[in-house]
Amino acid sequence: MNQMAATSATLEDRLRGALWSFMAGDALASPTHWYYGGQYQVIQEYGKEITDYTKPNHKLAGSILNKSDLNGGGRRGYGGSNNSKKTIIGDVINHGKQDLWSPKKSIHYHATLAKGENTLEVQIARVLMKSIVTNDGNFNADHFRDAYVKFMTTPGSHNDTYASTCHRMFFANLVHKGLPAKDCPDNDSHNVDVIDSLILPTIVALAGSCQRNPDIGSMSAACVAVTRRSSISEQIASQWASVVHSSLHDNDEPSFQTALNTFSKQTIRRLPNPRASDASTLCACYLSQSLPAMMDLIAKYLPENNPWFGLLANANVGGENVHRGSVIGAILGARASDANLPVQLKEGLYHHQEIAAEIDAFVKAVLPKEGEKKEEL
């Protein structure tokens, strides 16, 4: 095998590892999402620590679904401030889930998901992957926006209970204000500049990195802007793209560690702490809390060369661990590579057969074709 073929095979192996672990990090953590009681609460609710994919409980004491606005962002009460007969949650998106947000109930954020089933944010990431495939391996904001709107407004397109503030605000602007889809991204100055803003850019960065596209930073930022208005999230997504690129291309650990450390110093003003306790990474969704925790977990579990351990640890921490799980998974999976993923990581996913086909199509679309030369970053 010549050197070019070996390099391509290694790149594909890392890409597949990243994608599978991205899916797994989300699904493993969904049962304990926003469990701020940490490991004690996890064991109390499920009888033991999370050791595999687990169906989320139906009820959750302290759930804020019953305080969340069905017609926009934040906690403006059941039904929100808009008196329209059509509610965003239930009628426009998350069809049939409105009753689960009732102020008389205390429902788990992912109560309707099956064991190993992905949350809404990763389902949207799968829509993004298909959009990239349709566009010959490239990110196209207009195409993805159309696909996003169609997916979200189609009954039965996903099974999750919860939809984050950015999505509720987007569709409130689309339906209640009649704005063009391009003008619908919004920000409530509280719940939008958060860790889930890195989910979609990670997919764009994986695609762009495979093609060695010099614009992966700006493309990742543009991806953020499709669903939310957040300059800080765009900035961080642009910087994050370099870590994603390094996770795929740098075969030596010192080079990857340099990329990781550079991002860490840019965003949290310190180096990742590989000796941090798992419990110390319990945090909320806000970037000021979630980025340090994310960096520490990556640094701690990178030497394992098996993302399963880090993703289980993340699941058992609780707090905002679902979206962080996907982002961590992409990096740990890329560094471990597909060959080192345990069987249960893939086969335990609820839609593993569909996901396998989607990953195959994505890999084929984004990897450079034989004889094709991409501009170096």
TrEMBL record:
InterPro entries linked: ADP-ribosylglycohydrolase (IPR050792), Ribosyl_crysJ1 (IPR005502), Ribosyl_crysJ1_sf (IPR036705)
Organism domain of life: Eukaryota
Transmembrane domains' residue ranges: none
Taxonomic path: Eukaryota, Sar, Stramenopiles, Ochrophyta, Bacillariophyta
Name this polypeptide is given: ADP-ribosylglycohydrolase
